[in-house]
Amino acid sequence: MKKNYLLLFALLLLNFPVFSQETAPDDSWKTIYRTTAEKVNDMVHVELDARFDYSKSQLNGKEWLTLKPHFYPVDSVVLDAKCMDFYKVELVGEKQNTPLEYRYDSLQLTVELGRTYSAKEKYTLYIEYTANPNKIKEAGSAAIVEAKGLYFINPTGEDKDMPTQIWTQGETESNSGWIPIIDKPNQKATTKFMVRVPENYVSLSNGLLTKSKNNRDGSWTDTWEMTQPHAPYLFFIGIGDYAIVKDKPYEGREISYYVEKPYKEFALRTFGETPAMIKFFSEKLGVDYPWDKYSQMTAREYVSGAMENTTATLHGDGGRLNARQLADGNTWEPVVAHELFHQWFGDLVTTESWSNITVNESFADFSEIMWQEHRYGADEGMGYAYASRSRYLENANDTVKPLVRHYYAQREDVFDLVSYNKGGAILNMLRDFLGEDAFYKSLQTYLERNSFGTGNARKLQQAFEDVSGKDLSWFFSQWYFGAGHPHLDISYGYNESAKQAIVYVSQKQTTQLFKFPVWIDVYEGDQINSYFRWIDGQSDTLVFDVSAKPDLINFDARKVLLANKEDHKSFDEFVFQYEHAKNYVDRREAAEFALTQPMDKKNVDLIRATLEDQSYRIRTTVLTGLLELDPPAELFAQIRKIAESDPSKYAKAAALSLLATRKDDQYKALFVQCVEDSSYTVAGAAYQALLDLDEKEGLALLPKLQDDALGALKIAVQRAEFLTKTDADFDTIYAMLSAQSFGEKLRSYKNYMHYLERVDNPANFEKGMQFALELRNQAAAWIPEISTYTDEQILELKKVKEKNKEDGRMVDQMQAQIEYLDGLIEKEGL
Q1: Which terminus of the chain has fewer CB atoms gathered within 10 Å of its CB, N or C?
Q2: What does pTM read for this prediction?
Q3: Tens digits of residue pLDDT in 371-380
């Protein structure tokens, strides 16, 4: 499962709010120990004849479910089955079926088997039923926003702008919304799905398409067979009017992409690195890609980012990229790597429980780093790892959550920055500590020992220890079973008489005390001495013999440590670090330091250097950081050059946004020119800049831009549209936003918050604010920046309303809104 990180990136520019409810939070979950599901019966094989009623959004199914007792004799079986109607429940016999007694409570089907079965005996149930996914009321989460299991998109074709699709989403335990199963991650079974499909559509499911039968009634029945066992949350069916684009096979196995027909020409540009990824991951892991094929499908109105269904990954909106989106580069490529890596970590070896989701998601997160550094070089790999690590470190709410989490309110809660970003970061640390060979040999051992079975953190630890010969209890106890991360205060000294350089390291976190290894580079001119040391105390003092005071002591020289670091280097030391240490994070740290310093000549020189850095990430970071400052006029010639000709669309966009702060007519022609850029990101930044500089001219361009606006340009176009709206349009705007998907609401958020500045009716204003606050709460766990933005905007709204009142504009209405905002400010502690 992959949260939509492109959406999250966009949200750094948007943002959302919502304050806590009056009712006390339910903390009863803190006493409920979540462990691996007990296995009474084991699923062996699942066979389904699935027919879909588009008019009713129902699945009419005939299922043959083969099971066996796990160990102890059984005379009944409990199946997960949500909101279904049952017509037959029978025991399959050699000559005829025998009806069985059963009980059903709308969530579970309990079947009496008629006799006792031993662990050596298999039995098969035959079940006829109708699945009613739209009756399922189970809530989703921030990561997976719905839990119906089966989704009909525009099933009757009423929306002419939306394709008709059917797709399933099983994680965590939602596939029991369309098929009766034991819906637990520690179950595994082979599958055979016979899917009836309208003749103008195609289907995709797990395994191989072994048969396609013409029913001569305007439909086909596709038979998909999965001969290797896999977990029930990975069962999948997808149906729609897709083009099937086949890539070069991997060792004779089909690689294909199911995309909407208008996106056929872009499929290879979006997913085309897949064969190379499969080869790379197979070689690094020492375990060949384990399945018979690999297909990827895109879906409309998907409830998450992407999902690693066995052999058949499903992608949400981010997987549909056109030429203008691809002009920014393939932003979806890390997701392609993430879901593919799950075919080993998650599908081949599956977490035994949701408490151990780290053995699925942390590895998939780490695979993104692996692929970036392999495909694009060490600089990009380190930059990607830094960005991922930073997202976790910026979210203080996650410091109380261990990776292996036996206490949680709902299953979906474990899909967060801890399981993803923190987990990927600590695997990167472990790789650095053990070395490449031992690390990947350990992964191979773990996979081979647990293939087609389940895994957990203890099994993972055992594999690492057996291969490396090292006791890694210190690592797993603090990083997997403990919470938080180090908060380090690092300072430096020099003893002239003893010729000793000194590093003082203090741990300031209030959680556990950490023990960790660290590499320290000591620079004396061009000479670099590297030292390996352990940190394990509240305060540690490290001493190094030197010939003179070092030009730089680079703590955590390999830049893999997951920690907040307050590093007390001088300005000159950061300049030296930028010029000599050279790796991406060394340069990034120096660039970020420069953004905290006064704009004197020395600092401006450093900033000039960072704006020419080889990494677009650093150039963009500095440009974005300068938006919050008052950069000297002498920098703007260089900034303009970036806006005109930088090879990175992101750097160009950031430079345009920075030029916009000057409110200078000399840039208008450039803004107008860049509105036509092939990149939505650049065009969006340019259009925002033009609206800031000359709103009238910007609005004149609106009709021309509305027909082809996505991403940043869509946000800018929406801003222009909102500029034409007043309080009289509130009901229309509220209805539009309410009907949007979660992702669309997030993309609209910043413009919507500015629109509230023009809402006069107090009842509308409060209703609109509540909508925004609720959306913020949904997003805050993954996007901590949304809370900061919302706090700032609440205060800004109060200023706007106070100014309106001072100007004598609707005084009573403004006063009511001010009083509401005062109450909100007090509640939020702003």
Answers
A1: C
A2: 0.91
A3: 999 999 999 9
